[in-house]
Amino acid sequence: MGRSPCCDKVGLKKGPWTPEEDQKLLAYIEERGHGNWRALPAEAGLQRCGKSCRLRWTNYLRPDIKRGKFSLQEEQTIIQLHALLGNRWSAIATHLPKRTDNEIKNYWNTHLKKRLAKMGIDPVTHKPKTDALLSADGQSKNAANLSHMAQWESARLEAEARLVRQSKLRSNSIENEINQSSSSAAAAAQRSHHHSPPPRCLDVLRPWRRVSGPWPPINGAVGNVGGDLESPTSTLSFSENGAAHPLSAGGTADDATGMIEFMGNAGEVLVKEEGGDEEWKSFGNSTNHLPQYNEGIENSITFSSGLHDMTISMEGFTELLLSNSGGRNLSESDSGSGGGGGSGDGSGGSDYYDDSKNYWNSILNLVDSSPSNSPLF
DNA sequence: AATGAATACAACCGCGAAGTC
DNA sequence: CGACTTCGCGGTTGTATTCAT
């Protein structure tokens, strides 16, 4: 159990990889794939432990990795997902194609965390550091509401992760059959990093996206938008009392293997994976409340507890987050942009940081704009 | 030009989950 | 069913590079 002893062996090299080692590892994986990481180093003629080889491959050598500077869209996605998921880098990475969890984690620690801190936002909680802002009433409840959304998304991600694993197993077995008759390096490389169905977008955020399309660039200022973050669609529905409301109608023709549904049943959260074992799995807790996407009310989700309703307006949410969490692009629209504006990239002006102090407050204000204003939770 | 601080990124470590026997 | 292996994840460290003085 637990720790692998492979790295304890003497004589194994540690530290930075040389180009020769990279070449050996690449050549081996291209030719034979990586079946067993533990056995791989010896077979590939590397004086490394399997773990080190796996890390080097997954974080650096894999051909489907996009390296280099993070785009603004990617930054914003990371911030948003981190607000929802916390330090679950692998989960975040599934929504950032071609980026590794390690890279995202490093980027967060070296760039984004500091940037949020400068903005006066606690990078852990994504709340303003002056907690006095969160009084005992309204806003703290609203934060709890957002926390519920995060819980659901976490549960969904866990379910998706299992789907991905199952899908991977299936595809691997199929491809193994195919590759019996094919030994081309290209095919092997494809096999070796064919992990899963393409990552899907974060469904909790999808209603935000629907407001103005898939992650629209603010002011059209940012290149490299859209394509990098393109995500096939999974179907997610929140429902309560058996009434399902598809959050996303835009099912794309990817080869994703399943549909995941969230079902609220007397306060219990159930997750069903279609194509899986056809069972409803409980992540439940009777204190949770299930959001409903309001098809009649554009861009809104209603949280209903049976006694109380609260509707979150999605209108402007995307813009708000993008405006306040990113920043680099904001300098181009900082003239009289009201609440969403900002300026500079930190090295430029300070207005950006001033405005960004409203990052979370603004989110909460949106939440607080419930038509019913009913006390909740 | 030298040097120390800050930054960025690659890599390692240890733990827990999942899988296998 | 428990022991063991393997893998993946998140936290942390080490090192190279850049910047400031």
UniProtKB/TrEMBL annotation:
Biased composition (Low complexity): 174-190, 325-335
GO molecular function annotations of the record: DNA binding
Name the record gives this protein: Uncharacterized protein
Region called Disordered, residue ranges: 174-201, 325-351
Domain Myb-like, chain residue ranges per copy: 9-61, 62-112
Source species: Nepenthes gracilis
Keyword field: Developmental protein, DNA-binding, Nucleus, Repeat, Transcription, Transcription regulation
UniProt record, GO biological process: cell morphogenesis; regulation of cutin biosynthetic process
Example of a GO cellular component annotation carried by this entry: nucleus
Biased composition (Gly residues): 336-349
